[in-house]
Request: fold
Amino acid sequence: MVSFYKAKLLIIGHNEEHKSGILRLLSTSIFRREYKKVIGVDIGTVQFYHGGKVFIFSFWDCLCARKIDFFRSQFYRGGDALIIVHSQEHEDEIDKHVKDVKEKCGDLPILNIFISEGETFENAIGKLKNPEMYENNNDVLEWIADQVMEKSESSAERNIVIPVSELPEPIFYPDISLMESHPDQLKPILELIGFKTTEENEVRIMTRQALFSISLETADVFVTPLICEYCSKKCKKKSSQYLCIVPAGIGWTNIAQLSQKDFLILSKIYALSSPSLEDLPKDVLSQLKHLLTCKNFQPIDKNTPKLLFEKLNQISLNTLID
Reply:
């Protein structure tokens, strides 16, 4: 009877492109999106036969950016082996990550990988102790399998050099992150559908009630009520007020460069440029009613009827929210 053995392999390092390349090189199955920017890890798997056993390895490519320092160690739990992808930068921080891994997992086999970019093998020797040139995946996977099965008290360590040309070509998945926006990608799209952008990377939409300013960088929306331009009083409403609009779900596009934050920006622009505000969510309409109405309005020109401005200010918002 064939026995199955599962193991969890952790991948750390500060060159995310190289780490993703190693994940694709060693895995036969990976998630079809990059979740690392969102949750801090990408996962791949491989299944192979060795020594009378079927091994199922899961590779956890952990994001090493400081923004997830506070919860990265949770991904380390249950790790059976560690793969360190070395780069020329941030080498001083690798020891910290290795220490964190060992605190969660104890001693475990370590495979050091140096990605050689235009360097000769002789130059790489000075960067790793007793390095070997990469030959094939079977050699790497079988060595890890042997070490994991032995479970020796002192962790084994191996150093290999992989030319960057051996790494698979990058796959550009849709960016599901809400952390990054791409103004340069949004501008031609907005121009195509009739929106101009300012030097401040904003789209400004003028309606009968207010001026809406939508940032192409932060996705923030600020509202400047037009009624304030005709009011003699000085109050907080004289300045732009923040309007909170959050996504209700996940969008999709065949344009790989657009992120979910870009979708949110486009959605806000489309919704606020609509002739009618009736389709906006109730919580957004409630904010607008508060921002665009003012009981203390006093016109600058005393000859202008107050009712005219009150009528301008209401614009059917009172019919949308009771």
